[in-house]
Design brief:
This protein is of the alpha+beta class. Strands 3-2-1-4-5 form a five-stranded antiparallel β-sheet. The protein contains five helices and five strands, in the order H-H-E-E-E-H-E-E-H-H.
Length: 155
């Protein structure tokens, strides 16, 4: 009796199928993209994920960058992708070099709690680099890669 009752209750319920979920998810992802970049026509030589966290505001944003040379291609998901690709191409080893330890006497505290992590591949080489704005030296380094990390004025 319980089995029949349970089956009849479930018969009145509807469950979205996976296609509906995928379509809904895809629509949401498309709605958050500010620029539409073309599909790559040549090989993608840069594929990066950029995560920026503003500790004071508790905000975290994630950006995707894909480049074919100095041109942004899909799945890049932010305005200014072409400028970010040009920066990556022109910056040499800025994203692959080991950063020196900051000299506490030369680098003053700024009170800015933004932190960014960039990871992925450039020309087949794995990269991972962190940026912090908590010192004047870190802010200066961050400012060199603003097209990649995004503006700093949206606390």
């Amino acid at each position: 009796l319980l089995l029949v009752l349970g089956a009849s209750m479930l018969a009145g319920c509807t469950f979205p199928d996976s296609d509906e979920k995928a379509a809904s998810s895809s629509a949401s992802a498309t709605a958050t993209t500010t620029s539409v970049y073309p599909s790559p026509s040549a090989s993608v030589n840069v594929l990066l994920t950029i995560t920026v966290q503003t500790a004071n505001a508790g905000k975290i944003s994630t950006r995707q960058l894909a480049c074919s040379g100095d041109t942004a291609v899909s799945p890049t998901n932010f305005d200014g992708g072409d400028a970010a690709c040009r920066l990556v191409q022109a910056s040499g080893n800025l994203l692959t070099e080991t950063m020196p330890t900051e000299d506490p006497k030369a680098c003053r505290e700024t009170g800015d709690a933004k932190v960014a992590d960039v990871f992925g591949q450039i020309d087949g080489v794995d990269v991972r680099q962190s940026f912090r704005r908590n010192t004047t030296c870190g802010a200066e380094r961050w400012d060199k890669v603003i097209p990649l990390l995004g503006p700093t004025n949206n606390n």
